[in-house]
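TICKET #2291
ISSUE: user wants both folds in one file
ATTACHMENT 1:
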Amino acid sequence: MTAVTCISLVCPVGYTPASAAAAMRASISVFEELLYRDGSGQPIRGARVDAIPLETYGRSRLQALARLAVQQIDEKVVAQLPWGEMPFLLCTRDTDMPGARINGILSGLAIQGGRPLVGSRTFQVAHGQISAFVAMEQARKLLDERNVEACLIMAIDSLIDARSLSWLDSRMRLKTSEVTDGIIPGEAACILAVSKRPIVDRPLLLRGLGLAVETATANNEEPFRAEGLSAALKAALGEAGLQMHEIAFRLSDVAGESYAFEEVVLAQMRNMRQTRPEQPLWHAADCMGDCGSAAGLVQFAWAEQAFKRGYAPGQTAALHGSSMAFGGRAAAVVSA
């Protein structure tokens, strides 16, 4: 058994997992005009963590997000984890995605009582939108192969960065006054504990995980059939021992591009062998925009809260991750 517990989530709509999930459930969005402008000189809209001044740029912004996430760790969980002894996995953007450097952003961070957040074994997972799923697979291996009870997975990302925005705008992937089929930039920091035994009551249980590669990306002209995400979802369902029609609801990192919506639908159709009345699709980007490599962990956090608070439409959920520009695809099946 692999238990997953979100111990901190800082995002534009909330500073705790419970408050953020409640806002997303209520479809509360916080989009505003940023200080940045697109190629035509119009203001770019985005969703930001308002506790961090908009004038805080680049690496300093990522550090501020990390600091907030550590400060918001649930006190009830602090005493139950072996701090400084757990392998630590840091999820970051794809190596080819422009943005702020992440070197040293966690230096000096400590939880209550001065205990270190990061232990001696640290790993960087630079796979962008699917980083959370890749890190989850690595965490499971660490739990099986080494004498450890838990691992920490942390994701920090902000697309509210001049380099990231310029890169997206130049490829017509940024939602602007001239491009309606694009993403809205956001930011978030999230920390999960992955353990052999439950740390808190009613944690999320990871039932299956699948990773794949899609050759048809947003940067080429190959015919698109959603083969990568379909394969990842099939693998996750197979490990969980479930069929697609047994999944109660789905979560996705879809952030506004029609290409991404089509992919999720095609992946569902390719794996559905029996009809069911409904299978809702939740996407956090409706409320907080695209938060890059943190998008995957946000899905795990929201699913956990939905099961815990009793508003999930069933006992199983499928999570989806797609790195639209670089081809990585991932899926996970979780339950209460």
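ATTACHMENT 2:
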Amino acid sequence: MSGFIHRPQIEVLSAADGDRRRYWSDDDKLRIVEESFLGHRQVAATARRHGICRSLLTTWRREYRNGELGSSCPGSFAPVTVTTEAPASQAGRGDPCRPVDCQVEIVLPNGRRLIVPSGVNTEALVRILAAVDGP
């Protein structure tokens, strides 16, 4: 027999040879997520079109629905109801709401209520909401 031994050719790949992890800006993520909501069954097609895996797009969609995607501030919007009738505690006054007496009632998602004067300082209200909106 001959001394020749058949060895398959092997190619060694290093991490530097492949593409690095891509970075998606919040604007890009929002644009892709909103595109995926446009039609019926668009998640897989949108993911393929942008070269991302479907599970990543699903994660972005969940973050979008929860208000976590692209949000630079911890707050979020809440529904507001404006009524013209006075609360039960003020029903007997007969005096319309004067600017000094007007109050805003804020009901937080955790069930807590906050009643502040309508002319409250915005910075102070932000600090109060941050303290009250905790768990």
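RESOLUTION: both attachments delivered.
EXTRA DETAIL ON ATTACHMENT 2: Residues 53 and 133 are 36 Å apart (CA to CA).
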